[in-house]
Design brief:
Layout lengths: L3 E5 L4 H6 L1 H8 L4 E4 L5 H11 L4 E6 L1 H11 L5 E6 L5 H6 L5 H8 L4 E9 L2 E3 L2 E5 H8 L2 H7 L1 H11 L7 E4 L6 E3 L1 E5 L21 E6 L4 H10 L11 E6 L1 E5 L3 E4 L2 E5 L2 E13 L1
Parallel strand pairs: 1-2, 1-3, 3-4
Antiparallel strand pairs: 5-6, 5-16, 7-10, 7-14, 8-9, 8-13, 10-11, 11-12, 13-16, 14-15
Helix pairs in contact: 3-4, 7-9, 8-9
């Protein structure tokens, strides 16, 4: 891995507990290891790695770290690698990577490459999922301290406080489809959301399409129906749920936005996909 740079988020859940900032440089098979010191620095370090000619840039962290690294790599020919040491690691699950960071590190040495789509929300890329409305409000409301201490359960607990709120109404527009009104919209490139949950049953990360779920209402009864039917893949057939695939769409409304599990402001969003532009080691 002489031509690889690992960008490590030492505050990611597993990285922090194992003190990987001390361990990883000793076992990285010759890769250069750069450690972030604050949120947003992974993007800058990935951009620096591209400028210095590294052929592979490895995001060692959670989905938010992956997103930052991809932003820094955008427009380059560098390949993305992933060491899943975050809270949920949805993108790593989508790739079928071992969730043990040491096994994933060994896997990276095999240099097996896959080409995938890259999605965009306005001018920001994302690799797995965007949420507008309910889940984005949850992401924005979860405190860093609770996330570090409780992991995925922090999102569940915060979600229970948000579920009865009246979320802003959104309008979803896509060519070939009638406009849809909803209070929660999910846009994905792959199948998984929130862990090993196949929210988008038809998704293929290399088909040039975005999968879209528009949920008309958020509350106790719709959420209960959602949870009961999702394991069977029936949630897309529920009343008030619209599921379709498209290469681009617009979501209008004053709602919160999250990309790959990180809060990204609020407002109307134009989504599009760049087919087969992201090179990933699997």
């Amino acid at each position: 891995m002489q031509d690889s740079c690992i960008v490590l988020n030492p505050f990611a859940r597993t990285a922090r507990s194992l003190r990987l900032e001390e361990v990883l440089p000793k076992v990285a098979f010759g890769a250069t290891v750069w450690v972030t010191t604050h949120a947003g620095e992974a993007e800058a370090l990935a951009r620096k790695a591209v400028q210095e000619g590294f052929k592979t840039i490895v995001a060692a962290g959670g989905d938010g770290t992956v997103n930052e690294v991809v932003r820094g790599m955008s427009g380059s020919a560098a390949r993305l690698g992933v060491l899943p040491v975050g809270t949920v690691n949805v993108f790593a699950r989508e790739l079928g990577l071992p969730l043990d960071w040491e096994e994933s590190l060994i896997r990276l040495q095999l240099q097996r490459e896959r080409v995938m789509d890259l999605a965009w929300a306005n001018e920001r890329p994302f690799v797995q999922l965007a949420g507008i409305g309910f889940d984005a409000e949850v992401v924005a409301a979860v405190s860093p301290a609770d996330k570090k201490e409780w992991g995925p359960m922090a999102y569940v607990a915060t979600g229970l406080t948000q579920i009865t709120r009246l979320h802003p109404r959104l309008t979803i527009m896509a060519e070939g489809f009638e406009p849809v009104c909803a209070r929660w919209v999910l846009v994905g490139t792959g199948r998984f959301y929130g862990g090993p949950i196949p929210v988008f049953p038809k998704a293929n990360p290399a088909d040039g399409l975005l999968d879209v779920l528009a949920i008309e209402d958020v509350g106790w009864m719709p959420s209960l129906a959602w949870m009961l039917t999702m394991p069977l893949g029936w949630h897309t057939r529920l009343p008030g749920v619209t599921y379709f695939q498209t290469s681009k769409l617009r979501v209008e409304g004053d709602a919160a936005l999250e990309l790959d599990g990180e809060a990204c402001g609020r407002g109307s969003v134009d989504f599009r996909v760049s087919p087969n532009t992201l090179r990933v080691l699997v």
